[in-house]
Amino acid sequence: MAVVRYRIPDEPRPSGLIRYAVDPMWPLLAIMLSGNALGLAWFAFNSRALGSVSAAREGAYIAGSLLGCVALAFLIRMAAEQGLLPDKASLQYALLAFAALKPSLGYALYISQSRSAELIVHFGGVLRNGIVGLLVCFLIARSALDDLKLPWLISEALR
Length: 159
Prior knowledge:
This protein is mainly alpha-helical. The protein is built from six helices and no strands.
């Protein structure tokens, strides 16, 4: 006889990595302080560890952030080459689009993951403190990422 288990649709499915899950605030801070590559990688890992039910949406946010930054870099470079950004000040204003895109999609990831994290904590789960991971991202991994010689489009998306 098969046993049918009742399952709540928005109930997280924590994996064996749950012991490494952190509050989504820490990957958001990593995006702000250490760059897109490290913060998005941490969000992807945290989504898997939390067993987030919205993992597909979070993957779309991550892909949107990376592809959006590549598209922005390409458009800004094309606009500069076409003479649409004639001076340095207009180029600096155009580069503010990166500062708008990265944290806004990071915040969308934070909101999406916080639902699963809050449910886990509510039912007795424990999330790790992410300060150590943030310091590693900020002090060590960021400098290693800056030392890599990547094409301009890719480095803008990851920075």
